Amino acid sequence: MASAYPPAASTQPTLPSGPAVFKTVPYVFILPEILCGSWVWILVAATSVSYPLLQGWVMYVSLSSCLISLLLLLIYLFGFHKNSENWKVLDSLYHGATAILYMSAAVLQANATITSESGPNLPLYYQLNSAASFFAFITTFLYILHAFSIYYQ
């Protein structure tokens, strides 16, 4: 006997693919994360890197996060995720962990900026370090925003 009720519609939102990635929150944050993260490692690389341990960590976090986020963007663009719920969990865990790593890198870069106030080529390296600190904190905020918005989606 046939049921009088229509089949239940899926309440799970679908993961975007193709150009819809650039129009859907939280996936719209991926491109700004990549761009701001790129600025961080470009600006740090443009300085004299007076503090290799501090700024080496900043370079590692920014470069690896940029490459992994680019890979994640390509996965979403080409639809390799196959609309699996596991990708949402992976995305949320990745962006949450990266937000924590980026916060540590941003604080270390800010410390390198403060200590570079009294070094050789004072105005240029201080300004580059300041800009790198600014973009590191902006990138941290973007990763936090992405992690929480996918969690609450």
From TrEMBL:
It is a multi-pass membrane protein. GO terms for biological process: myelination. One of its GO terms (cellular component) is membrane. It comes from the Eukaryota. Residues 21-153 form the MARVEL domain. One of its GO terms (molecular function) is structural constituent of myelin sheath. PROSITE patterns: MARVEL. InterPro entries: MAL, Marvel, MARVEL-CKLF_proteins. Its main location: membrane. The chain crosses the membrane at residues 27-51, 57-80, 92-112, 132-152. Keywords: Membrane, Transmembrane, Transmembrane helix. It is found in: Membrane. This is MALL protein. It comes from Balaeniceps rex (Shoebill). The lineage of its organism: Eukaryota, Metazoa, Chordata, Craniata, Vertebrata. The gene is Mall.
